[in-house]
Amino acid sequence: GAGVPDGLRAEVLEAYHRLGPAACVAVRSSATAEDTAGLSFAGMHETFTNVVGDQAVIDQIVACWRSLYGQRVISYRAARGLTEEPSIAVVIQEQVAADRAGVLFTADPSTGERDRVVVEGAFGLGEVVVGGQVEPDTYVLDKDGPRLISTRIGHKGHSFIGAAGGGNTRVEATDEEARRRVLSDDEVVAV
């Protein structure tokens, strides 16, 4: 309810305006305790894509801050005995209109193997991958090379694409589209 202090609001909007008129941005949460050895807040705090306009940027910053106190986050913190006041940073990045997006892990997150790279991908914006909304394609590579070791094609039942003027549009996939491979072997190695 406190909103954004006037001085901070002015600084944020000045930087936003440097991106150009009606710039499209992602307003991303970045919790200070995310992804430590024993904790993973990744995907729990709010992130907004395809944000356009001064008031929308400011509103989404507040929503990112507010996500520190979402039910899922509070339950996660309580289950791990975290009692200190949480903090969060908010990153504003120019939005890329993605046909395909995902996450690259520099070590295998399921095995901890550091000689492996794991790429997960889906169609449209990457939030369906990081938010666990679809079963992404998963590609495992040996860092030596790099060389593709395995490919698992997931079922990607929908995607999100940027809507004109801001916000996102959900696009349902046909069964054939949902099972289509996101990246070719050469593209995975290039990533």
Would you kindly provide a written description of the structure presented here, covering whatever features stand out?
The chain is 25% helix and 30% strand. With 191 residues, it is of the alpha+beta class. A 4-stranded antiparallel beta sheet has the order 4-5-6-7. A 3-stranded antiparallel beta sheet has the order 2-1-3, with helices on one face. The protein is globular. The N and C termini lie far apart (42 Å). The model has no long low-confidence stretch (mean pLDDT 89).
Mean pLDDT: 89
Order of helices and strands, N to C? HEEHHEEEHEEEEHH
Q: What share of the residues does DSSP label as strand, in percent?
A: 25-35%
Number of helices, counting only DSSP H or I runs of 4 residues or more: 6
Weakly predicted, low-confidence segments: none
User: How many strands, what sense, and barrel or not for the largest sheet?
Assistant: 4 strands, antiparallel
Beta strand count:
9
* Helical content class: 25-40%
Radius of gyration, taken over Cα atoms and rounded to an integer in Å: 18 Å
Strands ordered across the widest β-sheet = 4-5-6-7
The best one-word shape is: globular
End-to-end C-alpha gap: 42 Å
Class inferred from helices and paired strands: alpha+beta
